[in-house]
Specification:
Largest sheet: 5 strands, mixed
Shape: globular
Number of helices: 5
Structural class: alpha+beta
Helix content: 40-55%
Radius of gyration: 16 Å
CATH class of one domain: Alpha Beta
Distance between the termini: 28 Å
Number of strands: 5
CATH architecture of one domain: 3-Layer(aba) Sandwich
Strand order of the largest sheet: 2-1-3-4-5
Length: 165
């Protein structure tokens, strides 16, 4: 985990970019600010906080990305990682790599997220199957899957809220 002064320097840099009026840098600045807040505080006290972070991170991407947010036992963010990048309509996700990343981060729990560039925030059968497989794989190493979000534009769907986890 980065030291706090370094994190605040990153946040200040992001704020300067946002204040410069350069539109393309505003989202980057927002991502930096949210990442810093999530790593240094009670950022995950509600599903809404997670949803907001993931929307900013994934909403404008033109290809599918699969992100894992690694959490400690108190559900504080250890790190978030973009583990897989795909095409416009699909991403290959490998459970073995997710297990390895969770163990490297010493995560007690994880939250998955991926985007649908199509703008439709409904899970496919493949999304549901993948989530079940990842949950089973991570359970073998005592890592709990808390949720899986699909981000499509400004819409966000939570598997946990839908009863799919």
């Amino acid at each position: 985990m980065p030291d706090i002064p370094k994190a605040y320097r990153r946040m200040n840099k992001a704020l300067r970019l946002a204040q410069s009026g350069e539109a393309e840098n505003v989202l980057s600045a927002a991502r930096e600010i949210l990442a810093t807040r999530m790593q240094h505080g009670d950022a995950l006290t509600s599903p809404g906080a997670v949803r907001d972070y993931l929307r900013v991170l994934l909403h404008d991407r033109e290809h599918e990305l699969f992100v894992v947010v690694m959490l400690n036992a108190q559900h504080r963010v250890l790190c978030s990682a973009e583990l897989f990048r795909g095409t416009l309509t699909q991403t290959s996700v490998y459970p073995r790599e997710i297990v390895k990343a969770a163990l490297r981060a010493n995560a007690a729990a994880v939250i998955f997220a991926h985007n649908h560039p199509s703008g439709v925030a409904e899970p496919s059968q493949a999304d549901e199957l993948l989530t079940r497989q990842l949950k089973e794989a991570l359970a073998l190493v005592d890592v709990k899957v808390l949720d899986h979000f699909i981000i499509a534009g400004t819409a966000a769907l939570s598997f946990a809220e839908r009863g799919l986890i």
